[in-house]
Amino acid sequence: MKAMRLVRYFILISALYFASATALANELAHVVFFGGYGTTDAQMKQWAHAAAEVAYGPTEKGAQGRFRYADNFDFEAVTLPSGHSEQAAVVADGEAVINEWVAKIDRASRGTQFVLVGHSSGAAISNQIAKRIADKTKIKLVVLDGYVPHGLSTEVSWYCWSAVATAAPSGEITSTAKTARNTATMMLCPNYNQIKVSGCTDSMCLHFGLVNLNAAKVGVNSQNFKTKGYEQIQPNLVWLNMFFKVASPPAKNASGSSN
Fold first, then answer.
1. Per-residue pLDDT at 37 exceeds 80
2. Is residue 224 part of a domain?
3. Is-contact 184 157, C-beta < 8 A?
4. Of the chain's two ends, which shows fewer C-beta atoms within 10 Å, N or C?
5. For residue 100, is it within any domain?
6. End-to-end CA distance of the chain
7. Which of 227, 219, 145 is closest to 179 using CA atoms?
């Protein structure tokens, strides 16, 4: 009788364990985007909404279709909580936001994944959150032409991105290459990535090309970036592709196109 009870207890515990593991495996990763200097709440809401609507991510080698971003991530965007762009001032003004997100991530169940993304001065906020959370395995950190993080635990995987208007070899700025405004700083990162943004001839346009594919179309420059940076927003999510889970591609319908 006692042996039967032990067997039932073992079965119950196993079922609960596997149910929990399955739930964690199926949970979407949370992309938290921190906008830079001059961003507004309306712009951040527009970016997050548009990011969730981006249909497809990278093509897997040998796959017949592509993975949906919505199958892997949900999106939230946070306005810079400061009227400054300097790192120390942004951190000082942003303590409440930093503490709020540290608490959220610390409360999240083990296995929950967050991709913290800081664009421009917003990296001052995301870098601090990454430094302060208790369980570093919950996060990945992405810096988009912003501040290089310092003093991070080696447990944190972090990546820096910048943009060029003229193709240049990785890690090299040519005399003819137009680059985003913080490219030289980004190149100091051990995990540095560089993309080409077509149509931009201004460093601020390239700076925003990392987050808005229409930056060149709307004519973002150093004078109008506060109003134009997120205009006609079409999120550039190339920096997110490395975090896709391995999954089956979307099914094809009778016409041969993906659903």
1. yes
2. no
3. no
4. N
5. yes
6. 54
7. 145
User: In angstroms, rounded to a whole number, what is the distance separating the alpha carbons of residues 12 and 20?
Assistant: 12
| pTM score above 0.90 | no
What is the count of structural domains for the chain? 1
Question: Are 165 and 196 a contacting pair, CB within 8 Å?
Answer: yes
Q: In CATH, what number is assigned to the domain containing residue 120?
A: 3.40.50.1820
Sequence-distant (6+) residues with CB within 8 A of 71 are: 28, 247
**Residue span of the structural domain in which 158 resides:** 28-163+182-198+237-243
DSSP 235: B
* Residues near 215 by beta carbon (within 8 Å), at least 6 away in sequence: 197, 200, 205, 206, 208, 209, 228, 229
pLDDT tens-digit series, residues 51-96: 998 877 555 444 445 667 877 899 999 999 999 999 999 999 999 9
Dig out the tokens for 186 from the structure.
Answer: 């980004």
User: In 3D, which of 231, 251, 209, 214 has the Cα closest to residue 67?
Assistant: 251
Name the one residue in this structure whose structure tokens are 């196993």. Answer: 14
Q: Is 78 inside a domain boundary?
A: yes
What CA–CA distance (Å, rounded) separates 76 from 44?
Answer: 8
For residue 28, which of 68, 63, 64 has the smallest C-alpha distance?
Answer: 68
Q: Average the pLDDT over each of 4-8, 44-48, 53-57, 242-246 and give the range with the smallest value.
A: 4-8
- Tell me which amino acid residue 27 is: E
pLDDT at 1: 54
58 within some domain? yes
Dihedral-angle region of residue 29 (phi above 0 means left; psi in -120 to 50 means alpha; beta otherwise): beta
